[in-house]
Structures are given as structure tokens and as C-alpha cells.
Amino acid sequence: LIGDPFATFAEGPNCAQYRKKLDGTGPQTREQIDFTKSARCIGGVLEPLVEEYFHEIVTFNKKEVAQNVILLFLYDTLRASQGFAKVGRSPTLNYDRESEPPRLAEFLVGVFAKKRYRVAILSDLGEDFDRDITAGMSISRARWRYRAAALRSIGPQAYAALKRLGFVGLVFEAARRWIG
Amino acid sequence: MLAIIRRHPNAYGVSIRDEIKARTEKDYSFGSIYAALERLEDRGLIKSREGEATAVRGGRKKLYFTITGSGQFVLRASLSAVDAMRDGVDLEGAPA
After folding, report:
1. 20 to 30 A from A103, CA-CA: which of A17, A97, A166, B85?
2. How many degrees, rounded to 5, is the angle at CA A88 between CA B61 and CA A135?
3. Do A156 and B32 touch (CB under 8 A)?
4. Cβ(B57)–Cβ(B4) under 8 Å?
5. Residue A45: is its pLDDT beyond 90?
6. Could you tell me the CA-to-CA distances from A140 to A30, A127, B91, B95 in Å, in that order?
7. What is the pTM of this model?
């Protein structure tokens, strides 16, 4: 990949085929193609893209919500591989917030986890969440399972943080992160 | 540490948790696992490195763990100690 992955892709054969599917009236940029027509993108565009750049087979859930989650992650992954900052989500993405892991649970895990492992723990929890969704579990149940796993993770991390910082230090650190 | 060795070179949080669960039928939280990994890494028995981002993981990088030379030494000594203590002990005949 050279330059913006989406610019590169926009010139690729998959994109041209996809434009034809849209009868020539489709959007002209990669971002718009992905996120305005994500459901139709899956079979013809996204799978070859994943295989080409990641050499992995991804099983997509039939639900469009789950597809949007995968598209978003793929979007950020491609951008990150090119050294672009993560955008989180595209403004054109019809994104369902309910398809994300619960934010409060993520926040609590992030507060108590050691900085060195914070991203890893959240990523592991996220991988379980994605695995549940791609296995066909409902978003709601997957979110509850995420909350339960996050709560179970907080205890040992809080204890480790307490030993590391002491009670006053822990409260101060939590307040500092809350304020930002 | 044994789970890390078993899953080498693909030992990260999820795979370590899955390995322990498959072999001991105990489902530890990621918090517990990383608390243990932190202690081991602080003692220099294991080391971590960031992996590549993958699409399956939503673009998030894995943190891979490997055992160090001193970790191998300590593990070998611990297992030898356990074997030595266990040698000749009849658990069936032990008083409850």
C-alpha cells in the first residue's frame, strides 16, 4: 500500500466492479463506498480486501450492525498501517453505537489497568466481544458478557493498582483520568 | 509460564486464557491473567512485545509474551521442586 489506502483502493479493480453494481451512480471515494453501502460491500469488496492485506479469513455476521463494526475496524486498521491517526469512525458511517462494547465498562477497566497493559486488556476483551458477535450472539448479550468480563477484570487490576499506588494515589489517579 | 511456552510464539492474553481454561477448566479473567503477567515481567521472567494489528482483532495490536532465559531457569527449578516434593507421596492414603 502506498499513500492513503482508500485512495489506492479507489483505483483498484474491486472498486470499479462495485461502482458498476451501483449503476455508475455510486459514490466516488472509498470511504463513501464502504460506509454508505456497507451491506452491499461485504461480499464483493471487503472480503478480497481482507484476504489481500491481512491474509486472514473473516466470518461476517449477517447483521448489518456487526458488519459496520468490522468495517470500522478494518478502516482504522488500514489507516493505521499507513501511519494515519485513528479516526474512530467515518462521518458517513451509519454507525450503531449499541454495536460497540459498553463504554462505561471500558472506562472502568481503563482506569484500573496498568498503562503498560491497558490497551492489551481492552483489546482482549474486544476480541472476545467480536468473537461473540461473529459467532451469532445478539449484540445485547455480547455487551452483557463484555460487562461481566470487564467487572471480573477490574478486581485483580484494582488490587494491583492499590498495591502500586496506595489508596490516596489510586483516588488521585482516577480523578485525574476522569477530569482528563 | 507454562501456558506461554505452550502457546509460543502466539502467547497473548486471549490465547493464554484459552490455554489455561482448556487444561484446567478454570476461567480466569483478563485482569487476573495480566496481574500475574505483570509480576512475572517485573521479575524479568517473561518479556512482552507488540504484535501486528489484525483485522480479526479490529485493528488492535496483540501484546505477545515470551519466556526469558531466567524464566526458563526459574520454571525448571520450580517444577523440579514440585516433582521432588511429590515423589513417593500417596495422595490416596493421605489423611483428609
Report:
1. A166
2. 60
3. yes
4. no
5. no
6. 30, 16, 47, 50
7. 0.59
Determine the Cα–Cα distance for residues A87 and A12; give it in Å rounded to an integer.
23
Task: Please report the beta strands in B15-95, taking only residues with DSSP state E, as ranges in sequence order.
Answer: 46-53, 61-67
Nearest to A73 among B37, B38, B58 (CB): B58
Nearest CA in chain A to B18: A128
Q: Cβ distance B4 to B11 under 8 Å?
A: yes
> Which DSSP string corresponds to A47-73?
HHHHHHHH----PPPSSHHHHHHHHHH
**How is residue A85 annotated by DSSP?**
P
Residues of B in contact with A73 (CB under 8 A): 55, 57-60
Q: Give ∠ CA A144-A148-A154 in degrees, rounded to 5.
A: 140
Q: Report d(CA A110, CA A119) in Å as an integer.
A: 8
pLDDT values of chain B reduced to their tens digit, one per residue, 96 residues: 999 999 998 899 999 999 999 999 898 999 899 989 999 999 999 999 988 766 556 567 789 999 999 999 999 999 999 999 988 888 777 776
B30 touches chain A (CB under 8 A): yes
Q: What is the spatial distance between Cα B1 and Cα B6, in angstroms, rounded to a whole number?
A: 9
Total beta-carbon pairs less than 8 A apart between chain A and chain B: 105
Extended beta strands in chain A, E state: none
Q: What type of residue sits at position A89?
A: R
Nearest of A32, A3, A33, A38 to residue A15 by alpha carbon: A33
Cell numbers representing residue A77 in the block? 486498521
CA distance A25 to A18: 11
Mutate to test the interface with A, among B34, B46, B63 (most CBs of A within 10 A): B34
